[in-house]
Amino acid sequence: MNLKNRDFISLMDFSPSELEGIITRAEAIKDGSLKVERHLHRKTLGLLFSVASTRTRISFQVAARQMGGHAEHINWEDTQLINHESLIDTAEVTSRYLDALIIRSYNMNQYGKGREALNLVSQHANIPIINALDDKDHPCQVMGDLLTMKEKLGEDFRKKHVVFTWGYAKRQKSPGVPHSMLVAASLLGMNITFAYPEGFDLDAEYVDFARERIEKNGGSLLVSNDLLNASEGADVIYVKSWKALNMSSEEDYEQRERIRPDWCVSEHHFQRAKSDAIFMNCLPLIRGEQATADVVDGKHSVLYDQAENRLHIQKAILHELLR
């Protein structure tokens, strides 16, 4: 596996063996068998964020420091971008200063513009560009999720039954996590069910990509509009809210308020799942919205292990891109 100097924008750009290699590298970094303390010696990363972040920002900053480098947080509004400097000029200049640029940018009222921004920067920067969440993908999050599933479910995690469900949240969020999970599941041959209300379909680009590949790679993809039925026999229930891509913000808000009671993960759903099923969510999460407090804080929850693994997977990604 050689990912040196490649961008990490969408998991569509990687092979199954490359995804598996990143996970294996993260395991070795986490258990200490791969030493990376000086891997980023004298290297500086930039984190250009236009959207708030907790886990992604902190895990990248800590990863860089623990690998002997430095990550500089750059608030989008503190740069000349706020005064309409072009992304082309920003990309050309920052790539003269930095060894990699990690970008978070999206606006769910302008679906696709965040990806356009990342692609434009990629075209004009000669350093790796890492997607820290745009309006289409969140590849770093999902790679950490796969590491967590492998740890909790074992080497044969691909054969387990994963239910990835939409959940109610007042805030309209990016579909980046479900899109990246859909791609990863299809490449790794996982058995996954996507549950969501009518009208909250995922981008056809990602669905078509997954349907072309998932059975060839030994997996299966099901779609359900009934969360309770989808939970039957689940090994994982992963809840994540996202904005409806084919509705206006107003229509989306009205629809999600109507369907709220049926799209909050509770113990009722875990009674249908396997007795040792795990509960996942990428955070942030408000108890009582996407899931009830007894699930979030209960025996099925692996949320904090999942969040910790962002650090280890980020280190693995940086290790491979900045060889």
Question: What's the helix and strand layout?
Answer:
Layout: H1 16-31, E1 44-49, H2 55-66, E2 70-75, H3 87-97, E3 100-104, H4 113-124, E4 129-131, H5 139-153, E5 161-165, H6 176-188, E6 191-195, H7 204-213, E7 220-224, H8 227-230, E8 236-239, H9 249-259, H10 267-270, E9 278-280, H11 293-296, H12 303-321
Parallel strand pairs: 1-2, 1-3, 3-4, 5-6, 5-8, 6-7, 8-9
Helix pairs in contact: 1-5, 1-12, 2-12, 3-4, 5-6, 5-12, 6-7
Largest sheet: 5 strands, parallel
- Kindly report the CATH topology of the largest domain: Rossmann fold
Please count the helical segments.
12
Report the top-level CATH class of the largest domain: Alpha Beta
Order of helices and strands: HEHEHEHEHEHEHEHEHHEHH
Unreliable spans are none
Give the proportion of residues in helices: 40-55%
User: What's the CATH architecture name of the largest domain?
Assistant: 3-Layer(aba) Sandwich
Number of strands: 9
What brief labels describe this structure?
Rossmann fold, 2 domains, 323 residues, 12 helices, four-stranded parallel beta sheet, alpha/beta, 41% helix
